[in-house]
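Exercise 7b. Backbone tokens:
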């Protein structure tokens, strides 16, 4: 019994020692943790100032970095603009293999080639342009001539005579000499007679008999205006011989077109000394 009691007492003693050691170890560990936590949370005044200085210094460094970045970007943009200006100013300058500047331009052979092409185009186009302008003038004259025929025919149908006007009154000498103005007053024409091939033009009524105005050989041989009382003719002054010839060829046809453009006495056209007379109608 004594041996059993001694063993139990030894065990209880060992347990108390073990419990004491474990309590001391746990207490020490808890105290250490509390000290670390308190030290991290509670700083000394000097440590707080140092932390504030670090944060301000970091903010200043960040602001400087942002400012530097903006300045760099602006410098890059300005550099690009300057480069573009320099490229624009140097479009006509190239660098040769030695690094020297050499002005760009056409060589002599290229210039000769360009001039040759221009000369060929001019030789092809100028005659066509001149012909087109001449044709436009002839067409203008023939169009005005047809408009005169229509207006004079309407006047004759309305007043039963070339020499008569409103109320059966006889036209005055001035009215007969500028017949187109009378037709405008009557509302039969919009504007006075004009032509692109001469300097000035007039529409007039002249007495028949004799030569009958310009003495038109309407059939190519005989002056058929001899038996007419009144002849209406359009006279154009300052006409070139070639223009008069072209009008005659269009108006009278090849059979009544003269071989010599300087004179024409056949058909409805009579040309001499720069004056072209066109027979409109007669009675």
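Sequence design result:
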């Amino acid at each position: 019994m004594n041996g059993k009691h001694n063993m139990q007492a030894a065990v209880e003693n060992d347990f108390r020692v073990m419990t004491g050691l474990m309590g001391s170890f746990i207490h020490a560990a808890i105290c250490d943790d509390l000290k670390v936590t308190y030290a991290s949370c509670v700083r000394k005044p000097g440590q707080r100032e140092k932390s504030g200085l670090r944060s301000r210094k970091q903010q200043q460094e960040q602001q400087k970095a942002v400012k530097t970045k903006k300045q760099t970007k602006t410098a890059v943009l300005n550099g690009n603009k300057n480069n573009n200006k320099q490229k624009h100013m140097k479009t006509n300058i190239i660098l040769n293999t030695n690094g020297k500047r050499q002005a760009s331009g056409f060589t002599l052979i290229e210039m000769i080639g360009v001039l040759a092409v221009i000369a060929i185009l001019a030789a092809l186009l100028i005659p066509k342009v001149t012909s087109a302008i001449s044709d436009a003038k002839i067409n203008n004259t023939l169009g005005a001539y047809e408009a005169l025929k229509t207006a004079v025919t309407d006047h004759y149908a309305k007043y039963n005579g070339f020499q008569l006007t409103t109320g059966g009154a006889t036209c005055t000498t001035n009215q007969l000499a500028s017949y187109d103005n009378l037709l405008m007053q009557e509302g039969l024409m919009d504007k006075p007679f004009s032509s692109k091939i001469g300097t000035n033009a007039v529409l007039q009524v002249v007495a028949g008999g004799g030569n009958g105005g310009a003495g038109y050989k309407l059939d190519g041989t005989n002056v058929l205006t001899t038996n007419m009382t009144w002849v209406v003719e359009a006279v154009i002054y300052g006409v070139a011989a070639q223009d008069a010839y072209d009008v005659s060829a269009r108006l009278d046809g090849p059979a009544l077109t003269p071989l010599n453009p300087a004179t024409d006495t056949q058909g409805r056209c009579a040309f001499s000394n720069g004056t072209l007379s066109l027979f409109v109608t007669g009675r």
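Instructor comment: The first strand starts at residue 93 and ends at 95. The beta strands are 93-95, 101-103, 200-207, 230-237, 269-272, 275-282.
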